[in-house]
Amino acid sequence: MARLAIPVAVRWADLDAYGHVNNVAVLRLLEEARVAAFWHPGEGEPEYPTAVLHAGPGSQTTTVVAKHEVEYLAPFGHLRDGVVVELWVGHLGGASIDICYEIYDGSTDPATRADDGAPRAPFVRATSVLVMLDSRTGAPRRLGEAERAAWEPFVEDPVTHRRRA
Amino acid sequence: MARLAIPVAVRWADLDAYGHVNNVAVLRLLEEARVAAFWHPGEGEPEYPTAVLHAGPGSQTTTVVAKHEVEYLAPFGHLRDGVVVELWVGHLGGASIDICYEIYDGSTDPATRADDGAPRAPFVRATSVLVMLDSRTGAPRRLGEAERAAWEPFVEDPVTHRRRA
Amino acid sequence: MARLAIPVAVRWADLDAYGHVNNVAVLRLLEEARVAAFWHPGEGEPEYPTAVLHAGPGSQTTTVVAKHEVEYLAPFGHLRDGVVVELWVGHLGGASIDICYEIYDGSTDPATRADDGAPRAPFVRATSVLVMLDSRTGAPRRLGEAERAAWEPFVEDPVTHRRRA
Amino acid sequence: MARLAIPVAVRWADLDAYGHVNNVAVLRLLEEARVAAFWHPGEGEPEYPTAVLHAGPGSQTTTVVAKHEVEYLAPFGHLRDGVVVELWVGHLGGASIDICYEIYDGSTDPATRADDGAPRAPFVRATSVLVMLDSRTGAPRRLGEAERAAWEPFVEDPVTHRRRA
Predict the structure, then answer these.
(1) ipTM of the complex as predicted
(2) Cα–Cα dist A91/D15, whole Å
(3) B127, C120, D11, D84: least buried by Cβ within 10 Å?
(4) Residue D40's pLDDT is what?
(5) pLDDT digits (tens, 9 = 90+) for B1-17
(6) Looking at CA atoms only, how far is residue D45 from chain B in angstroms?
(7) What does pTM read for this prediction?
């Protein structure tokens, strides 16, 4: 019932010859938001304010990306205030989790990004399927109760990706 | 009825802490293969042997990526012989083209990668939707006859991406 | 007599297998600070607070990097608060400018980074030589009065790079 | 008295808006050549033909980059045949090694790149200082006899970098 809103800086090196963030660089922005959301602070390291999802996997878990699906809806450039990646859980599977994202202009008021009847216009809409592996065996392992409890508040309807008719 | 087989070098910088090519870096390998396939040599520049798809868009066309869908089936590392990206056309739309890809170990014999009954085991399976825009207006423009003629020999069944049940 | 202090976010993708920012990624941080310092806002675009150096080159100028010299003094990781790149002009040449940089932990108080007797400990010390070319001819062109006036307040002693004895 | 000549592929993503390899991307080409030259094959992995320098550091050694100095002499683009990085040892120190590089067009005949009176025109000239650390203590450790023996055949005069007068 909630989304994380994670600010991510855009870099000049992300731009292509048209001054738009390159389509591959967009995945770096999603990665950066995902890492922030799941961040495990090391000993003595500060915690991310957005790192609410890290209750789950510990050092015995390797999280791998099984799939990305990314739709580019509108081009965007080197925004002074960067972007905000809205991130939520689209599905909790047995040994996997679907992370959904929308990327917005970081200078827009969060209120106007909210679903209040105003047109919402993300630049990008995406889904990543993450699979949790047991680091010792390399085999998928079931999500635990602590993980489900930490992530359930962030479950919302998944992104509906367009299919060709 | 044919695929292009495009060798792409893997870089040490593509690897993550596990020694595997990072999931975002995989999209750079696909991009490199796609550019090679569509390469327009400049005046006096050599032509790519794989650049058979460049019959179409000219300088009045801007080709944009509308969507990527990428499945990671098996991890791979800094292969001495790089990878081979097999690339074909999954669908010719009105103003768009679906490019399909599979990534294989570059050291394997192409014959054993062929569909001869032996198990085929790509590392990655992916689809990109490209849309052709008129560079002057920015609006999608219909594919021309020359483009369709150049691309039709490379139309094969599209990749079937796994959906969650 | 002044330095610019430009905050730059570190990305997870900048890290190597040891959890340190990769030596090549460091140059991306310097590039990001340099672009911010010289930023020319487009029409209607916001101005960077740090973009005090943009008085000079206009659209008839192409600025190229002729040289980088970068010393890595201490490793650093994915700092929650990113880094601060201190940037100044080490030398104003006829058709070139030497940009000097030091990279500091972004969470440190600027006061304690100041030269107040406390040990200053940058992670990185670097110099870039930029050359201004006339975009039409490609030939180096002399710096103008407006450029010199804009940049002179930021001239300080250049970084002294270590040489092997 | 010998140099290694290491072919490295250029990627489309290395290019800037002018169609030239970006100055930071050049360091990725140097890194790729350096890794190839020092490559330690894992068990069962093929050896690089260029990996003649790997006699030295074993798993108890961490090699860190202490410094890069890079001069950009001529721009270059997405060369069909990539580049050749010529790499040699400019200096063997107590606990460090200076690696020197020149980058050439990969399509040129090596013979015409040789020092036969013809003008040699590298795109880039660079030096990296690598320091060998004891992985357990993190302190610099002296080069051993095996390392010196492996590297001495590749010692040549170092690159002379231009200094401002």
Answers:
(1) 0.87
(2) 39
(3) C120
(4) 61
(5) 689 999 999 999 999 88
(6) 9
(7) 0.90
Nearest to A13 among C31, C45, C46 (CB): C31
B140: number of Cβ within 10 Å: 16
Inter-chain touch B24–C17, beta carbons under 8 Å: no
- How far is residue C37's CA from residue B74's CA, in Å, rounded to a whole number? 43
Q: Which of D11, D35, D38 to mutate to test the interface with B (most CBs of B within 10 A)?
A: D11
Strands (E), A9-147: 61-72, 83-92, 96-105, 124-134
What are the tens digits of pLDDT across the range A52-76? 555 444 557 888 999 999 999 999 9
**D4-154, CATH topology level:** Thiol Ester Dehydrase; Chain A (3.10.129)
Spell out the SS3 assignment of chain B.
Answer: CCCEEEEECCCHHHECCCCCECHHHHHHHHHHHHHHHHCCCCCCCCCCCCCCCCCCCCCCEEEEEEEEEEEECCCCCCCCCCEEEEEEEEEECCCEEEEEEEEEECCCCHHHHCCCCCCCCCCEEEEEEEEEEECCCCCECCCCHHHHHHHHHHECCCCCCCCCC
Distance CA B89, CA B100 (A): 6
Cβ-defined contact of A9 to C8 (cutoff 8 Å): yes
- Domains of chain B, residue spans: 4-154
